[in-house]
Amino acid sequence: MKRRDLEAHLRKHGCFPHHHGGKHDVWVNATSLRQTSIPRHRELKLGLVAGVCKKLGVPSPSAV
Length: 64
Prior knowledge:
The protein has helices at 3-12, 46-56; strands spanning 15-20, 24-29, 35-39. It is an alpha+beta fold and 64 residues long. The chain has a domain at 1-40.
C-alpha cells in the first residue's frame, strides 16, 4: 500500500502526525491518544498497515 494512501486513511479516522523522527513519523489518534510510528517508505507491506491501524484503534483499509 502506498504511504500517502495510509496517511489519508488515518486522517479520515481522526489521526494526525505528531512529530517526525529520524526515519519514522509518529502518528496519534486524537480520540484515544494512542500513538505509533510509521516508517518513511513509499510502499508499506500490508501486515505493517494492519498493525499500525490496530495500534491506533482504527479499522484497516479495505485493501488489507
